[in-house]
Amino acid sequence: MATWRSMALLFLFLHLLPLAAMADKDAFVGFNIGTALSDMPSPTQVVALLKAQKIFHVRLYDADQAMLLALSGTGIRVTVSVPNQQLLAIGQSNSTAANWVARNILTHVPATNITAISVGSEVLTAIPNAAPVLVSALKFIHAALVAARLDSHIKVSTAHSSSIILDSFPPSQAFFNRTWDPVMIPLLEFLQSTKSYLMLNVYPYYDYIQSRDAIPLDYALFRPLPPNKEAVDSNTLLHYTNVFDAIVDAAYFSMSYLNFTNIPIVVTESGWPSKGDSNEPDATLDNANTYNSNLIKHVINNTGTPKHPGVAVSTFIYELYNEDARSGVVSEKNWGLFDGNGRPIYVLHLTGSGTMLANDTTNQTYCVARDGVDRKMLQAALDWACGPGKVDCSAMVQGAPCYEPDTVAAHATYAFDAYYHRMVMAEGTCDFNGVATVTTTDPSHGSCIFPGSNGSNGTFINGTSLAPSSNSTSGSLSTFNESNSVSFLRLIVVLLLSGVFL
Q: CA geometry: angle at 190 spanning 185 and 191, to 5°?
């Protein structure tokens, strides 16, 4: 028995050894920054949002000069990209690649903390005609970095769609599409020799949709499953509780199939849309919130995957902003966590997930009066908040810190925010029939300190009155203003606290 145990431990040690050096590196969560917005924030505004949300890793889809300048001096780690339309020229000319590096990298480092270059995006599936020059492009870019002595700091790779993996479940049977062997094998050799990593885009949303109900929604959203519902790889007996891990392990096994066992994986895109067309019923705020909240917890807790537990799988969430100017179905425009004004699309549930976004959509959002709304509606909402809403409005009486400015909008903003934080920023508690909105800008002024500023987030009271919203059927705000006979919704809430997945 002792001999068998020793052999088993030795086997396990040898199995994990190739990736052991990665296990002590903490995983990070970053954000992709798309620019297809009808009113794109300025680079300075983008960086201000990143700082406010404590986002320390970003990925750009190009090497925009203004954006790289705005990131200068912030310490934010930046992955820049060679756009697909430039790939053919760079892949066929060493000098063109060197010029690209000189113009887009050397002029910005070290002030801007560029740590990686993604050469193209999903080239094999998006522009297969450029595949023959892909590895050359990586090598030419890397050679320019070597010449500038930046190769140890800036890694070079290329982002792949997970669709290049065939027969992805069980993961142990997965393999890369053999059609791409002439590209994948030299690519993996390059990544291995330069100590770089495989960039992979992982979208459980699309896997779930394409499975036609074969994949349970909970399995795609990282929700806990009973043991008998977990997916088991019959070859390895590894249990999979979510689609994300299964795809990442399928990539690990695909590399192993080609005899590459020491190349780490960074997920360059993953997320869930918050809105979709009528034929996309699972693109909802709740599902997007659940997926991204659970993904962030999963990544920064260094959970790893069943094949490589504890080995970091750093991930960039797709994406920072909703891109309303994108073409295609509604979901294509709604992957962001923020709108163009920096307002959260939904409130993430990140209790117990450390400092990553811990004071963004969880602790540093505020409920304010919308600009230009009907004054009578605003007054009605203010009356409700200070009355049935049970907000302490004493800070707004004459002589109190929040009396000035003595306007309905200013007083309503204080009352709305006090109610919003008293209700722990729950969904639907910052609407007031459309006259309120969530913002990340602190409305505090002078000695008037708003609840969200001092960490006084209140207590969610089971059974308290729910603030009227545009989706409420409990009565209109005009009813609140004209009569004391008000129908209240009972808000029944189950709080999922630290350590419990949504």
A: 100
Q: State the catalytic residue, choosing from 189, 230, 269, 323.
A: 269
DSSP H or E segment with residue 136: helix 134-147
Task: Give phi and psi for 239, each to the nearest 5.
Answer: -95, 135
Establish whether the linkage from the previous residue to 332 is cis, with ω within 30° of 0: no
Active-site residue, selected from the candidate residues 122, 230, 404, 427: 122
Structure tokens, 209: 């949709």
Question: Rounded to an integer, what distance in angstroms lies between the CA atom of residue 43 and that of residue 343?
Answer: 16
* 184 in Cβ contact with 176 (< 8 Å): yes
Whether the pLDDT of residue 381 is over 90: the answer is yes
pLDDT digits (tens, 9 = 90+) for 343-370: 888 878 776 555 555 434 445 678 889 8
Give 233's contacts (C-beta < 8 A, 6+ positions apart).
169, 170, 171, 172, 240, 306
Distance (Å) of CA 100 to CA 91, 132, 494: 11, 20, 53
The number of C-alpha atoms within 13 Å of 422 and in the hemisphere containing its C-beta is: 19
The verdict on whether 269 is a catalytic residue reads: yes
Q: How far apart are CA 212 and CA 487, in angstroms?
A: 42
Full-model pTM: 0.70
Has 122 been annotated as catalytic? yes
